[in-house]
Design brief:
The chain is of the alpha/beta class. It is built from 20 helices and 18 strands. Bound molecules: ligand LZDS7PUF and potassium ion. The site of ligand LZDS7PUF has 29 residues, from α1, α2 and α3.
């Protein structure tokens, strides 16, 4: 079964919760494709990946042993199908079953009955002489922490250093939240079916999955019209069609005028990082609004980015008379306090786009509703006017209750924050989540560890600001900015610092627009 690409569009990058996946199963079976057909295709896909891990088709035929761990449900059923497929291909395979196979039911019982190889009790597994472990213990049906026997087995596998191929999810991992329930396998590869789950991309889940293979097993994409998933992997298929890009007959004002607020004379670098990124990412014009004391510092260090004095609300009110000023970045290096709050309120009241980051967010720490009330009243036809780009610490300042609610996944937490604030919320991390008040959310999956460096967050605000200034709808603008930021880091490679990111945007655009 090939991983045939689906027609490009948001549903191409949809994520399905375990419950939504079960609906996809049910709709497909109701449509006449049996659960056994799905399980057969799933198991054969697992066997194909196993052979690749063993050194290519037939690679398993050279006497190596493969251990298939089979759980009590359909995840175990997939394991039995994989085992029988490998056995027929000459692989020395043994199934270690968590229960007597006569206790299996439904499709799993069918798969176990079709398996002609040997079955051992799970407790007999030692890992000796084993070249690969296929984890078919638990998948989408995991509903509680693993018991001691399974947790000990995972430790046995880890001590033996045997590569692990997980079916659907590494056992112990919650497919909805990416949380580890007690203990979980750390797989080298994970094969999942039809569409990934949020838990494949949310930490720590993502770090437990290894290389993720998404295989098609016969579920038709049209089930997604019924399911209508609202979460996605953040990839260009989600927003590429919505990007506003330069047109032949256009001029710089068509691409929007972006503004970044500078901090005081000794704190201007962050704003310049954002401003430079905004210009490089596509804004037609970018101006640094600078306090008088920092004008010379800024003017001496920019060229195409312009500098204007802005010292207080009267200055800003005058600037806002220019309706061409489309999108504003407030926060990087700005300073925490009443001025930031006043500026943010003025910009939102003027119906302009505001990306609030760093000090801008912290300025509302003890009065978030002041900001939210303003934002909730200002959503335009393209979506919210406000984008918040907190890291976990800043998120906690605005949404302390959500940050403390352990039962929420990062996806849930960010979604609730978006509804409460009326903003598109970008909760940063290795698994950055972007959520809109209308319920849509995306989990970012690109980038490199080198992004954990001072100033990269400032650059991100500039990249998002550039999309907003050009007229891209708010949620798509934030998703595009986050993806461009991660891809720029990947293109640069090791040794990255914040100043290196904007310079990678031309190569990123060349790929994106090819
Ligand atoms: N379209 C698809 O994606 C397909 C998926 N397939 C595979 O099916 C599994 C889901 O199978 P399911 O039987 O629903 O669930 P699991 O096999 O993951 O779990 C089996 C049962 O285990 C029990 N359980 C849950 N947590 C624990 C735990 N910590 N310890 C012990 N037992 C646990 C639970 O039953 P309970 O009654 O005890 O609650 C589970 O039901 C999916 O992951 C895919 O691999 C299809 O085969 C092909 C199509
Ligand atoms: K599994």
């Amino acid at each position: 079964m090939t991983d045939a690409p689906i027609a490009s569009g948001p549903y191409d990058v949809a994520l399905l919760t375990p419950d939504e996946m079960a609906s996809a199963d049910r709709l497909t079976i109701a449509g006449g494709i049996s659960g056994r057909t799905l399980m057969g295709a799933a198991g054969r896909a697992v066997a194909e990946v196993a052979q690749a891990m063993l050194g290519g088709p037939g690679g398993g035929g050279n006497g190596v042993r493969v251990a298939c761990l089979a759980g009590p449900g359909n995840n175990g059923g997939d394991a039995f199908v994989a085992a029988e497929t490998l056995r027929c291909e000459g692989v020395d395979v043994v199934v270690f079953s968590v229960c007597d196979i006569d206790r299996l039911a439904g499709d799993a019982a069918w798969a176990a009955a079709a398996y002609r190889g040997s079955v051992e009790p799970l407790g007999a597994f030692t890992g000796d002489g084993c070249a690969l472990v296929i984890d078919g213990l638990f998948g989408a049906g995991l509903s509680r922490p693993l018991d001691a026997e399974i947790a000990n087995l995972i430790e046995t596998v880890e001590r033996a250093g045997v590569p692990v191929l997980a079916i659907d999810l590494p056992s112990g991992l919650c497919g909805r939240s990416g949380a580890v329930l007690g203990k979980a396998f750390t797989a080298d590869r994970t094969v999942t079916f039809f569409r990934p789950k949020p838990g494949h991309f949310l930490e720590p889940g993502r770090s437990h999955c290894g290389v993720l293979d998404v295989r098609q097993i016969g579920i038709a994409p049209d089930v997604l019209e019924t399911i209508a998933p609202r979460q996605f992997v953040n990839r260009p298929a989600l927003w590429r069609a919505d990007l506003s890009l330069p047109v032949d007959a256009g001029h710089k004002y068509d691409r929007g005028h972006a503004v970044v607020f500078s901090g005081s004379a000794s704190r201007t670098g962050a704003a310049r990082l954002a401003a430079g990124a905004a210009l490089r990412a596509g804004a037609g014009l970018v101006t640094l609004f600078s306090p008088a004391g920092a004008i010379l510092v800024n003017a001496a260090q920019v060229t195409a980015v312009m500098v204007e004095r802005c010292d207080g609300e009267r200055d800003l009110a005058r600037h806002l008379d220019d309706s061409r000023l489309k999108a504003f970045v407030l926060g990087p290096g700005f300073g925490v306090g009443g001025t930031a709050r006043a500026y943010a309120t003025q910009i939102l009241k003027a119906g302009r786009f505001l990306i609030l980051d760093a000090d801008g967010i912290s300025s509302f720490a003890d009065r978030p509703e002041e900001l939210f009330d303003e934002a909730l009243g200002q959503a335009g036809e393209g979506g919210p006017n406000l984008v918040l780009t907190p890291h976990a610490g800043e998120f906690k300042r605005l949404f302390p209750d959500l940050a403390a609610k352990g039962s929420l996944s990062k996806l849930d937490r960010t979604r609730e924050a978006a509804v409460r604030s009326g903003a598109v919320v970008v909760l940063k991390g290795r698994d950055t989540v972007i959520a809109a008040p209308d319920g849509r959310a995306a989990i970012n999956a690109n980038g490199t560890p080198w992004l954990a460096s001072a100033g990269t967050g400032d650059v991100l605000t500039g990249m998002i600001c550039a999309q907003l200034s050009q007229g891209t709808p708010t949620f798509e603008a934030a998703c595009a900015g986050v993806w461009m930021h991660g891809r720029s880091a990947e293109l640069f490679g090791p040794g990255l610092i914040a100043e290196d990111l904007a310079g990678q945007l031309p190569a990123m655009f060349a790929e994106l627009l090819a």
